[in-house]
Write a structure and sequence with these properties.
single chain, alpha+beta, three-stranded antiparallel beta sheet, 27% helix, elongated, binds iron/sulfur cluster
C-alpha cells in the first residue's frame, strides 16, 4: 500500500505553490481558489486553474514573489476600502 502512494504529489506541487499561479483572491487563496496560469507556454490557453490543480511545468514560488503578491493585494484591498467608505457616505448610493 505504501509503495503505491509513493508518487502522489497532489498537496506538494500544485498550482497554489507554483510561481505561475495568479489567484483571483491573493489574500485568501487556498487549494480551492481559482485563478489563471501565467506559464509562458500555457498562458495563451487562458486556463482557469484551482489551487489544487497541477501540471508537469510546476515551478515553486519563491518567498519573495509571494510577499510581493501579498503586498500588492493588501494595497489594492486598502484602496477598495477607501473607495467603499467614500461611497457609503453618499445618501442613497446603494439604492440605484
Ligand atoms: S498549471 Fe502548471 S504551470 Fe500553471 S500554475 Fe498550475 S502548476 Fe503552475
Amino acid at each position: 500500500m505504501e509503495e503505491s502512494n509513493k508518487h502522489i504529489t497532489w498537496q506538494g506541487e500544485n498550482c497554489l505553490l507554483c510561481k505561475y499561479f495568479v489567484p483571483n483572491d491573493v489574500i485568501n487563496a487556498d487549494l480551492l481558489e481559482r485563478g489563471k496560469c501565467a506559464h509562458p507556454s500555457l498562458v495563451r490557453f487562458n486556463l482557469v486553474v484551482s489551487g489544487r490543480d497541477w501540471c508537469n511545468l510546476f515551478s515553486k514560488m519563491s518567498d519573495q514573489r509571494r510577499d510581493k503578491l501579498l503586498e500588492e493585494a493588501f494595497k489594492r484591498d486598502d484602496e477598495q476600502l477607501k473607495r467603499l467608505t467614500e461611497e457609503s457616505k453618499k445618501p442613497g448610493n446603494f439604492d440605484q
